[in-house]
Amino acid sequence: QYYINLLETDPSQEAYGDSIAVLGIGTFLNHARNRLNATILSVYHTVEHKLFAGFKNNERSKYVSKILKWGTQIQKDVFNDVLSEWKMVDSAGYSLPQTNQSKLELFETIKGNLQLQTYRITGFMQFNSTWSTLKKNQLVEISKKVKVNGSKEKQVFTEIIREASTKFALALGVRAGYTSINQELFFTPRISFTFFPNAFMVKDSKIAKRNISYRFASGLYYQPPFYREFRTFDGNLNLSVKSQKSLHFVAGTDIYFNMWGREVPFKLTSEIFYKYLWDVNPYEIDNVRTRYFAENNAVAYAYGIDANLHGQFVEGIETFFKIGLLSTKEDIKNDWYKEYYNAAGERIIFGYSEDQLVVDSATIYPGYVPRPTDQFFTFGALVQDQMPGLENFTVQMGMQFGSRLPYGPPDHSRYKDTLRMKSYFRVDLGMSYALISKKSKKQNFWNKNFSEAEISFEVFNLLGINNVLSKQWIQDVEGKYYSIPNYLTSRRYNLKFILRL
Length: 501
What we know:
By secondary structure, the protein is mainly beta. Helices cover 2% and strands 66% of the residues. The strands form six sheets. It has a 19-stranded antiparallel sheet that branches. Strands 9-10 form a two-stranded antiparallel ribbon. The model has no long low-confidence stretch (mean pLDDT 88).
């Protein structure tokens, strides 16, 4: 329910900008009494066979392993879906759609009794091979700048490494499947390659092996439709929907490094990826509900970068930071719309523009538009610390940020979904005290009777930010849409006392 108010527009008045009268009350009633019964039966079998594992020469410097895996799965899906949905838009003196006073029509009605039964058969075969080359008595020389008497000087470290190896890992595979309801058969090959180089670094004035790896993967991926992808907006089933298909390219690296004298190394993981998608089944998010178009009528792409850093920034306690960049857009085939212009050459927005007399028009082909998951920047962190002298007391702070996601009016026109919600930002704070010390061997009530005893206090959404989950759309008598934000929970407190025997 919403109120139509009259606002004070005189800046000299104390109530400027506030409501001074209620002109009417509107109601947007979205009713659903749906019943979905899903039965999914599945049986699968996998096999792993070692083809070879051992050294390839007498010097035992070349090691090879070969493993073959395969498996199959049979699945039966049965869905019984009873739909009963209707929407009513009622405001001050009118209801949409407008009819004569003796008849009241609903804004939207969906009725259906749907049944779907399908079989899925999938199988895979994968060949894994690793091989390594061992080098003995290798002379390693590394140049590094070190501090000497307050200034940095170049120093050369030389050492003979008794044993060090270079390792390669290769995975080749193929996946096949068949879906009975749409009679679709597919084969998708995949490949991945990982390289562990024979690299070194200087640690504590000595040369040590550097733990680093590079990887590359590519392949075809088919996503057979599930029940939700078959169902149309009007409550019917389009059984001709096929799998959504994509070609992936992923390159990444894992780097372990030492810092601040920690025994456990830090780990930096980074990936760059590109994905091309076709036969895409577009979808939109209506409030918190995902609704598919039930058509394979779009192509799309996605590319981005992910990076994660894990390590003990505080000795003995893990902390991580992660960052992501993403761009993903889609183009619905053969979609277009009309734009109309008045005598001044201005685009007419019906219901808003002053001059709505059409003198010209143009056909617009929107091309690529942001997908619902097009979030350019994300950041997350979990930082933990201990109180000096009281290590049983720890503090954790989590932070999440996500840039603005796209949205649009609920009229199933994807080209309009180019508006952006406000960014998501949340900070959580937690404090805990362990009643059983891991370092102390003194006996007390807690460690005599329990294996774990802890009390904690948490504050969720510490800053009390009103993050937006989705938009609720309402419509007036002139057909104008207004978006009302649906907010996530504000600040919350949680007190826990944990005892484990």
